[in-house]
Specification:
Transcription Regulator spoIIAA, 5-stranded mixed sheet, globular, 7-stranded mixed sheet, about 30% helix, alpha/beta, Rossmann fold
């Protein structure tokens, strides 16, 4: 198997050649779908990240890292161990730096630039599997008022503003994360407009916006599966319906609502149908424009718990 892995690495750049014209942040190996269950390899420009989700290839870890260094000459390479079946290592996995001193770098995604830090929890600042969805939102944002809930480092907000949005409000419970979003704005030459960064939970902002009769042309709703923060708890299975209905209530006529989740218990068809039903309680003429899973480099999306995404775009009016 290890020889097959080396052969795949040599061909991986060619397989993703068209994608590499658009971005230098992508997944090169996506676990079992590429023939290697429990193993992923991500590229962030000159920085690379290996993740082990099972012990099947751990015995070859050193050989694998040597081959990655030989083929890609990374400035920085880190290995993360996500071996807990319960997911306890999700936010703070054990990791080993193979080479390099600086985990931070800047990557390009289409028309946008983003800062990443490969030692900052599991995700270094940019969810690679949602690249094509961000690109779609960028194309649809010209002149729009955009609301980006659970904004994380504000990548949707950046794409929206680069696409011509008049403003993009980013909502997150973490002030530290929002500061990274501001840095991404500045990195792309975007002025941080008043009111574009709101520290608080999505429910709070939606209630405030509805009370003030604010309307948005595009709402992005990408919540985590579970979250706890200073007495606030969120469970996507229990709380998503109410979030979708509240989001739909502040959409302008013809407005767009993008809802996504990485919770492995959802299936794409039923997820899209349920989102549409929730939106139709507010706007009976709503329709689904698309339903999607992970980006094209995440081959076999949905075949394992560590590689799943359900996303749908609904239009009202």
């Amino acid at each position: 198997m290890i020889n097959d892995f080396f052969s795949f690495l040599q061909k991986s750049a060619e397989k993703r050649q068209n994608l590499q014209k658009f971005t230098n942040a992508l997944r090169l190996v996506n676990g079992g779908a590429d023939g290697f269950p429990g193993f992923t390899l991500d590229q962030y420009g000159t920085h690379f990240q290996v993740q082990f989700f099972s012990e099947k290839l751990l015995a070859q870890e050193n050989q694998i890292c040597e081959e990655i260094q030989r083929l890609f000459s990374p400035e920085y390479l880190v290995v993360k161990y996500r071996l807990s079946p319960s997911g306890k290592d999700l936010e703070h996995p054990e990791f080993r730096v193979v080479c390099g001193l600086n985990p931070e770098t800047i990557v390009q995604e289409g028309n946008c630039l983003f800062q990443v830090n490969l030692e900052d929890t599991v995700n270094p600042g940019l969810f690679l599997d949602m690249r094509e969805i961000r690109e779609d939102i960028e194309r649809r944002s010209s002149g729009a008022k955009v609301l980006n809930l659970f904004s994380y480092t504000c990548s949707f907000g950046v794409h929206a503003r680069v696409g011509g949005a008049s403003m993009a409000v980013n909502v997150d419970i973490s002030g530290k994360i929002l500061e990274k979003g501001r840095e991404n704005y500045k990195l792309n030459g975007l002025e941080c407009l008043p009111g574009e960064f709101f520290k608080g939970n999505a429910f709070e902002y939606l209630a405030w916006a509805k009370k003030r009769e604010k309307k948005f042309d595009v709402v992005v709703l990408d919540p985590p599966s579970f979250a706890r923060f200073k007495g606030f708890s969120f469970n996507v299975r229990q709380d998503l319906d109410s979030l979708v209905k509240s989001s739909a209530s502040i959409l302008s006529l013809g407005g767009l609502l993008m809802v996504s989740s990485n919770y492995s218990g959802f299936s794409l068809d039923s997820f899209s149908e349920k989102i549409l039903q929730d939106v139709q309680e507010t706007a009976s003429c709503a329709k689904v424009l698309w339903k999607r899973s992970q980006a094209s480099d995440f081959v076999g999306s949905g075949q394992s718990k560590d590689s799943s995404l359900c996303a749908t775009l609904v239009q009202v009016g």
